[in-house]
Amino acid sequence: APLQIHAAMLALDTFQEQHSRLPNTGCLQDAEVLLKLTEEVNATLKNKAPVNAELVRCLSRTARGTLSPLAAAVGGLASQEALKAITGKFAPLQQWFYLDAIEVVKPLQSLSPEEFSPRGDRYDGLRACIGESMCLELHKLRVFMVGCGAIGCEMLKNFALLGVGLAKSSGEVCITDPDLIEKSNLNRQFLFRPHHIQKPKSTTAAEATHDINPDLYVDAHLNKVCPATESIYSDSFYSRLNLVVTALDNVEARRYVDSRCVSNQRPLLDSGTMGTKGHTEIIVPNLTESYNSHRDPPEEEIPFCTLKSFPSVIEHTIQWARDKFENAFAHKPSMYNSFWLTHSSAEVVLQRIQAGESLEGAFQVIKLLSRRPSQWEQCVAIARLKFEKYFKRKAIQLLHSFPLDTRLKDGSLFWQSPKRPPAPIDFDLKDNLHFTFIVSTARLFAGIYNIPYSEKDLSEETVSRILADVKIPEYRPSEKCIETDETVKKPDQIKMPQSSEEEREAITQLEQAIAANSVTPESLQMSPQQFEKDDDSNGHMDFVASASALRARMYSIEPADRLKTKRIAGKIIPAIATATAAVAGLVALELIKVVGGYEFESFKNCFFNLAIPVVVLTEPAPVKRTLIRDNIYFSIWDCWTIFGHEDFTLSDLMNAVREKYGIEPTMVVHGVKMLYVPVMPGHSKRLKLTMQKLIKPSVDRRYVDLTVSFAPEADGDEDLPGPPVRYYFTCDGETP
């Protein structure tokens, strides 16, 4: 194909030189002239392929056209080449590179010439490529795009140029993104400008898109797409969509959106970039596998002992700080709240522990309760003690356990690369890093314990006055064993056995708290902090950046600036405008194919690396069909449906499945609840119960998806899997 395209493009140049114009759209005479020129050019080429007459005719018909997604993809690649020339970075392109979308235009060859004729509007260039009928289909498209970052901005530009979702055609582009625009976004998210900083991405992007094409109807939301927003992005919401586009860097969010698309039989266009690399994936109901059909290999984890005791690079100290944040300000408060939701009162917990019961998480929760601060001054004191623990005592303990002259069994030094010996840090409030750590840590403790503080409380004068009264206990290193095995995983603190001394201490602490009347409803509540890297006012990045920098200083590791720390701690995937432009263009090409109802062979997934440069186009993975038995197959896209009514019993459901689909159900599960398992005691009695009583649906619930297993062909074989069975509570599927 590249050689055939090369000959045709050289012939097109010759045509333009001879006629001072490009071939006219739909002109058969021009097409034949171009074909003859192509044959002449091809005869002169050293490396040649047979002339592809169909390709040449497609080129002639579309020569005056403009397919903006293809222009975006080629533009991204060409821009990267320009950057290579300027910077000298990455390997430049050798000779020629052709990227074609012949599979988009080839199926349209049989349409009448009028389809491609100009109408005197902004879509004439597009119309010359894909025809009027396809343009109209794009205009009335209803798209849901999740994410308005770098790829999202580029996708919206493609939508505007393609006329996707025009108001006058009852089309719509619904977009959602909860994030605000940051200064760092401006180098690749080109719908945003400096005066947009701290404004919502979605609404700002919608306004900018409207400026490009005022006819577009863009509905901007500020929501995450997750189980918590399922009432907003419900099945009825998905039912009125034509397709979904994900422009996210969060894998779990993409997996969730994919599951919603599968259950609602909607196409999904997914893409992502990392630096100069990019990929696109097209997911079409009943034709391809889904995003969840494959799993990326797990990320390589930093060994527990490296994070805890032996960091050697800045990434280790940043991850350590991030873990400290997660444990102290998110995990422990969440565990604390869950514990008190399960256990009614401190008195009952005390009685059960005294009776010898083992309550999961009780000792950690009691420790948090007994040490709970109630004033800002106490939060500052805790922060100072944390500084002492993290940056002084830890070093003293390590050097006590492994003195600098420690040798391994083979005689080599213990403290040799990559291991770095730590140096204890003495606290100095005049050191800005020390001050930032104290204030940010105190703020976070105040946040989880719902303790108010003022701007004055954050001043160096106030903090200095509080610290003057904080007594730092003398520290003596212990003879404890420090883990050095890189294969050992982090222990689960909640499930670790407690010594009898720890049990007695916990009982005493809880008795004292109850006796002091300090156990109030308020004291049994904490406010977990979800790490938010983009809000500089919350102190989250202040904590991570200062804690990481102090640990790096302790281990003589080259520090990172705040931006790099933010990128690593926030798991920000590096993006470059060239790659995002190319990815968005390639996705928009697939969108045209979805709208046109193209055959499976037309769809293309893509992986590219503009640095090399390499572009690999492949067919999507075809959907796998699993045999249940007797020529009964199912795929991930299948969902069997049963319509019930108020008195519909579990037995009725099983009979209905057998009669409708010709196979006997043996087990019915709803979520994690087993509705019917024959071997379970008492389950046979459930057959007479109504589905309403077994499931207890909410008032507005129309249906539930059930996991059903089927009887094997031979006794002793395992039950057979099947597709989900969607049970509607009413015969018409409406809300009961």
Overall pLDDT score: 91
- By helix and strand content, what is the structural category? alpha/beta
Range of helix content:
40-55%
Tally of separate helices: 24
Strand content: 5-15%
Work out the radius of gyration.
32 Å
Gross morphology: globular
Terminal Cα span: 58 Å
Across the major sheet, the strand order is: 3-2-1-4-5-6-7-8
Number of β-strand runs: 15
Uncertain spans: none
Largest beta-sheet characterization: 8 strands, mixed
Structural summary, described in words:
- Residues 603-725 form the Ubiquitin-activating enzyme E1 C-terminal domain.
- One of its GO terms (cellular component) is nucleus.
- One of its GO terms (molecular function) is ubiquitin activating enzyme activity.
- Belongs to the ubiquitin-activating E1 family.
- The protein has 736 residues and is an alpha/beta fold.
- It is built from 24 helices and 15 strands.
- The protein has helices spanning 2-19, 28-44, 53-62, 68-87, 102-105, 124-130, 132-139, 150-162, 201-212, 235-239, 251-263, 304-308, 314-342, 346-354, 362-370, 376-401, 432-448, 460-468, 500-515, 540-554, 562-569, 577-595, 650-661, 691-695, and strands spanning 142-146, 172-176, 218-221, 243-246, 268-274, 277-283, 605-609, 614-618, 626-629, 632-634, 640-643, 665-670, 673-676, 703-710, 725-728.
- 34% of the residues are buried.
Short description:
The chain is α/β, with parallel strands linked by helices and 736 residues long. Helices cover 42% and strands 10% of the residues. The strands form 3 sheets. An 8-stranded mixed beta sheet has the order 3-2-1-4-5-6-7-8, sandwiched between helices. Strands 11-15-14-12-13 form a 5-stranded mixed beta sheet, covered by helices on one side.
